[in-house]
Amino acid sequence: HKIAVLISGGGSNLQAILDSIDSGYLNCSIEAVISDNPSAYGIERARSKNIDVFILNKKIYGDRLSDEILKILSGRVELIVLAGFLSILKGDILKSFKGRIINIHPSLIPSFCGSGMYGIKVHKSALEYGVKITGCTVHFVDEGVDTGKIILQKAVPVLEDDTPEILQKRVLEAEHRALPEAIRLILNSGKQREGIK
Ligand code: GRF
């Protein structure tokens, strides 16, 4: 199974996928890593594994980003994984790869999600609201933001003296288990249509 991973930052979720491939948990290969941020540390993680890296600076590509990604990936991969990818995909790629793009979000959707809700902000909001349980969600990507069918979720407790940083770390650990699990579920069951029932 050939997949692509899209990143914008540190790439710890990319690393979790790389580790899952090395351990044999995932039976797939990463054909390409695409970053919309030229200074994403995830680029180094990919390069150290001799994976093709494409840097498509969103400041330069702007509205053309999605079409450029489609050009690169069309016919090359069966699944596109957004792992800490902050640009919003739109247009033809959503049709060509319908049911074959997944995203991981650091909350239990439909809470604390939608445009502008990413990174540490998600955890700040969860703490402000006072939820006792939060977690992460892997879902299919559709035309909306964080609105596609949910594939799997992992819950984590919110503790008394949690800071946003402490909570983010706890959720990130759950993400690193959830994303490889979701990829395996999809690749092994071939259920690449919208949602898994
Ligand atoms: C983190 O906020 C994570 O929760 C979300 O994307 C951000 C960066 O993740 N999925 P990564 O370390 O770049 O994978």
From TrEMBL:
InterPro entries assigned to the protein according to its UniProt record, in alphabetical order: Formyl_transf_N, Formyl_transf_N_sf, GART, GART_AS
Record PROSITE patterns: GART
Listed pathway(s): Purine metabolism; IMP biosynthesis via de novo pathway; N(2)-formyl-N(1)-(5-phospho-D-ribosyl)glycinamide from N(1)-(5-phospho-D-ribosyl)glycinamide (10-formyl THF route): step 1/1
Binding site for N(1)-(5-phospho-beta-D-ribosyl)glycinamide: 11-13
A Gene Ontology molecular function term of the record: phosphoribosylglycinamide formyltransferase activity
Domain Formyl transferase N-terminal: 2-183
Swiss-Prot/TrEMBL site (Raises pKa of active site His) positions: 146
Annotated residues for binding of (6R)-10-formyltetrahydrofolate: 64, 103
Keyword Transferase attributed: yes
EC number: 2.1.2.2
Gene3D superfamilies: Formyl transferase, N-terminal domain
SUPFAM superfamilies in UniProt: Formyltransferase
Alphabetized NCBIfam families for the sequence: PurN (TIGR00639)
Family note: Belongs to the GART family.
Function: Catalyzes the transfer of a formyl group from 10-formyltetrahydrofolate to 5-phospho-ribosyl-glycinamide (GAR), producing 5-phospho-ribosyl-N-formylglycinamide (FGAR) and tetrahydrofolate.
PANTHER family: PHOSPHORIBOSYLGLYCINAMIDE FORMYLTRANSFERASE
Protein name: Phosphoribosylglycinamide formyltransferase
Species of the source: Fervidicella metallireducens AeB
Classification of source organism: Bacteria, Bacillati, Bacillota, Clostridia, Eubacteriales
